[in-house]
Design brief:
single chain, alpha/beta, 15% helix, seven-stranded mixed sheet, 4 helices
C-alpha cells in the first residue's frame, strides 16, 4: 500500500488535495494548522511531494530525505537558484544533488497573478524509479500558456504563494502510480490532470 506525504500542505492544499488516495494512506503537516513538520516525527513514506518554505528548505530537505523509504521518491518545488550560493555548498555535499530537476518554463505565476524574477523547478530524488519518464539531470517543462491579465501596480509586498493550478508539471503522479496518461506527454499535462491519476 503506497503512502503519500506532504510536509507543507498549505492552506489551499494545492498538492495534497489532488492526490487521489484514501486519507488513511496520506499524511501531512502544516504549521498554520498546528502540525510543525520540523518538530514532529513521522513514519517513513513512499512518496513525498511538497513546496517547502524557501527559508527553511535545508532542514526540510534533510528531514524529508531521512523520512523517505529506501525505495521512496521525494519531489519538491524550489527556485533553481537554491542550487547556488557558497553558503549551501556544505548542504549539497551532505545530501547530494537530486537526480532530476525539470525546470518550469515560463516562470510560474503566483497567487494574485504576479511572478518573481527566479526560475523554478521540481527537485526529484527518485530512489524507487517512479519518475522514469522524466530525463535525468536538468530538463524543461513547458507550461501551457494562458492569457495574462494586465498588470496592476502593487501597493504593498505580500507573501508570495505559488498558484500550482497554473503549472504544467511532469507526470510525477502518473509515474509514481503507473497510471495511463491517454497519450499525453508529461510536458502537456497540467497539475490537475496529473493529480487525477494518483
Amino acid at each position: 500500500m503506497m503512502s503519500f506525504w506532504s510536509s507543507c500542505k498549505g492552506e489551499n492544499e494545492n498538492i495534497y488535495s489532488r492526490v487521489n488516495l484514501p486519507e488513511a494512506q496520506k499524511q501531512w503537516a502544516e504549521i498554520t494548522q498546528g502540525v510543525d513538520y520540523l518538530n514532529t516525527s513521522f513514519t517513513k513514506k513512499d512518496v513525498i511531494i511538497t513546496n517547502p518554505p524557501f527559508s527553511l528548505s535545508e532542514p526540510f530537505i534533510e528531514k524529508m530525505l531521512s523520512e523517505l523509504k529506501e525505495d521512496g521518491t521525494l519531489i519538491f518545488l524550489q527556485r533553481v537558484n537554491f542550487l547556488g550560493s557558497v553558503k549551501r555548498v556544505p548542504f549539497w555535499s551532505k545530501v547530494g544533488f537530486p537526480e532530476k530537476a525539470p525546470i518550469l518554463v515560463p516562470r510560474p505565476r503566483f497567487v494574485g497573478g504576479g511572478s518573481d524574477s527566479c526560475e523554478y523547478c521540481w527537485f526529484i530524488y527518485d530512489r524507487g524509479n517512479r519518475t522514469s519518464k522524466i530525463p535525468n539531470s536538468f530538463s524543461h517543462i513547458v507550461a501551457e500558456q494562458k492569457p495574462r491579465k494586465p498588470k496592476k501596480p502593487r501597493k504593498s509586498k505580500k507573501k508570495i504563494q505559488i498558484d500550482l493550478n497554473n503549472l504544467a508539471v511532469p507526470s510525477i503522479v502518473d509515474a509514481c502510480t503507473e497510471a495511463k496518461t491517454e497519450g499525453k506527454s508529461y510536458d502537456d499535462m497540467t497539475l490537475e490532470e496529473l493529480m487525477s491519476n494518483f
